[in-house]
Each structure stands twice: as structure tokens, then as C-alpha cells.
Amino acid sequence: MPHSLLDHIRKFISLTPELEAQIPEYFERLEVGKKEVLLPANTICNRLFFVEKGCVHAFFTDRQGVEKSVQFALENWWISDYQAFYKKKMTDSTIQAVEDSVVWSISKERYDALLVEHPATESYFRKMYEIGYGAVITRIKYLFTYSKEEVFYNFSEQFPYFVQRVPQYILATYLGLTPEYLSKLRAKRRS
Amino acid sequence: MPHSLLDHIRKFISLTPELEAQIPEYFERLEVGKKEVLLPANTICNRLFFVEKGCVHAFFTDRQGVEKSVQFALENWWISDYQAFYKKKMTDSTIQAVEDSVVWSISKERYDALLVEHPATESYFRKMYEIGYGAVITRIKYLFTYSKEEVFYNFSEQFPYFVQRVPQYILATYLGLTPEYLSKLRAKRRS
Fold first, then answer.
1. I need a labelling partner for A57 at 20 to 30 A (CA). Which of A7, B10, B29, B103 fits?
2. In angstroms, rounded to a whole number, what is the distance separating the alpha carbons of residues B52 and B4?
3. Are B85 and A139 in contact (CB under 8 A)?
4. Cα B12 to chain center, whole Å?
5. Are B176 and A136 an interchain contact pair (Cβ–Cβ within 8 Å)?
6. CA of A186 to nearest chain B CA: how many angstroms apart?
7. Cβ–Cβ pairs < 8 A, chains A and B
8. B79 in Cβ contact with B97 (< 8 Å)
9. What is the distance in angstroms between the Cα of B30 and the nearest Cα belonging to chain A?
10. Residue A136 and residue A153 in one domain
11. Of A86, A125, A137, which is closest to B131 when you measure between CB atoms?
């Protein structure tokens, strides 16, 4: 039976049949509807999520009451408030499905147990975070280099499938724009 | 003999005497002067650095020719262009000492060998990247939430030692400000 999470892990580390049988036991598979909340803000962040299907984002509410997306996960990517998850602390982010999604969820306790009981998985997560860390630093470089208009155009060229799928108001805040400004840019592009 | 790198690793994983003896052999210890370049831009990023003493930053040159700091490492922190290092690709960042520094340097080949030959180190690097990844996402949240003035004040409150040590023009670009603007803010604060 194909298994998205195992398929993904197998791309980064070799899995024994024993490990393949055991890893899924650490997780819960959730089917969530569009806009359903996986982890609410102002609670202890004790969950890490892997997206099998759909799209999930993490947003916080700024002082003006505007919801701002800081992270996205499409198929085969992980999402959590990593800083809060690492220390099992309160998060100010809400983790929410953007579309109907299928998600593998692991608690902090089970995650810690997985890493201790199956140390081979350390290498997989090391690679996930090494890649994610590098990507976020590149995102900061982009924010510091390009005008708001260029940020949008560059992003659209690099991730066209993403721009198609994600609602405009969410995409705007993720790129540091207002939805109104993004709407103007899109109209300009079509004209 | 105290050993900054081993002391740091020991905070995150347990080390056997055998491992303690072997880890330093994967690294070179470098003493570098202020402004000395550890890794030049437009070369293959095949080095990861741990700062024992001093301060190191990574900067790139934007299209206006302005050097912008994207990362810093004080004592007991790692620095590289992680995205380029992971794939052993060309980097557009220069890694440079901000002060006279003592640095442990590991090549990509030796890093890969260390992780394979001593899998216990996977857990250490997984934790480093998990912490770093979370911290950079928080930095993006700050950039999206606060005014430029607030970014500086928040940063000064959280990392006063850092603001004291790092030259103003470097600190300014790291916070997404111009040196002139930062200079005004500092004057305002003193008055």
C-alpha cells in the first residue's frame, strides 16, 4: 500500500521493513476540512504535522488584528511552530487547513520517543530542518532585496502552482503585502 | 582541557570518550582577524563554521551594491549558507569575521562523513537546525509585525550584548534598516 509519509522518509534515509511497520504507529492520520484548525493559537504547541494531501498554513494575528501567514505546507512538507514545539511552549500561531487536507500528526511526546527508539529518524529530521532553515534564510534575503512588486513576481515564477491554489488574502500576507496591493498587481499582470 | 565545541555538543547529546576524541579530528580550528573572509561569495559553499570566540556574519550584496547581513554567529553558534551547503552549490553570501575570532570549520565531505561514521551527531545537528529554523521564522514574524523603529528597540532589549558588539552598519542591514536610520534611532534613544 502506498504511504505518503513513508515514501517521503524513504527519499532521505533507508528504512528497514521493521521501521516501515513501526513509524506509522507514532502518528495519527487526520482528514480535515477547509479552514479547520489543527492547532489553535495560545495553546501549548505539542504537535508537528506532515501534509499528505492539501494545504496547511500557520498564521498569527498582528496588533492591528490582521491575520498574517508565516508558513505554508503543501503535499510532503512539515509544519508547526517549531520554536514553540521544540520547547513545548505556548504558540501565538494557529495552524489551519487552507483546503480539505489529509495530515499526519505526531505529538511532542511521540516525536521524542520516535527519535530515541528509532535513531535512524534523526537523520531524516536533521535533513528536513537543514533544508527548511536554509529556505527561510533565503526568504529573508528576498524580503531584503526585492521591492514588494518583485517579491510577488519572483514568487509567482518560482511557485506557480502555489499561487494558483492559495487564496489571495493568505498569499498576500505571506509575502508581506496587503490583499489590496496584491489584487492590483494581479490585475496589472493580466492587463 | 576545555573544548568549546565538545562542551556545546555535550549540552545536547551524550558523548562517549571515544566520540570526544574523534569529533575534533573532523574539524580545523582557525584563528581569523577582524574582516577576514572565511568563505567568499560566488564559490561553492562547502564549509560549515562553529564560532568558539568572536563574531562572524554572512552577507550578500544587493542590486544597489549594498552589503546586507543575513546571519550572525556569536560564541557557540553555527553559520553557513545552509541552502548552498546542503546541496554543495554556489553561494551568493560571504562569510566574514566581524571581530578577531576563533572558529571550528568542517568541510561538506567531512560533515557527511561525521554524520555517517558517528550517527549520534545526527541528533545534535537535528537540534541545532530545529532551533535555528524556529528562530528564523520568528524573525520573519517580527519583520511583518513591527515598524522599523520597533524592530530595533525589540532587538536591543532582547540582545543588548549583540547591539553593543556589532558595528552599526552591519546591525542596520541585519534589521532591514539603513545605517543612517539606525544612527537616528540611537541618537533619539540617548537623548
1. A7
2. 6
3. no
4. 18
5. no
6. 22
7. 114
8. no
9. 24
10. no
11. A86
Confidence class for position A2, pLDDT limits 50, 70, 90: low
Instruction: Provide ipTM, 2 decimals.
Output: 0.94
Please report, for residues A12, A50, A119, A152, B116, the alpha-carbon distance to residue A123 in angstroms, rounded to integers and kept in the order given: 8, 17, 8, 34, 9
For residue A190, the enclosing domain spans 146-191
pLDDT value at residue B177:
86
**B125 and B151 inside one domain:** no
Closest CA–CA distance from residue A144 to any residue of chain B (Å)? 6
Quick check: A70 and B144 in contact, CB under 8 A?
A: yes
**Pair type for strands B78-79 and B47-53:** antiparallel
A contact test, residue of B85, B140, B171 with most A CBs within 10 A? B140
Question: Does B130 touch chain A if contact means CB atoms closer than 8 Å?
Answer: yes
The Cα–Cα gap between A114 and A60 comes to 29
Domain count, chain A: 2
Where do we find the cell 543575513?
B70
The reply to whether B54 and B66 lie within a common domain is yes
DSSP assignment letter at A143: H
C-alpha cell at A147: 521591492
Length of chain A: 191
User: And the C-alpha cell for B134?
Assistant: 524556529
- Cut 0.80: pTM above it: yes
Nearest chain A residue (CA) to B174: A144
Structure confidence at residue A132 (pLDDT)? 96
Same domain membership, residue B150 and residue B122: no
Residues A115 and A169 in one domain: no
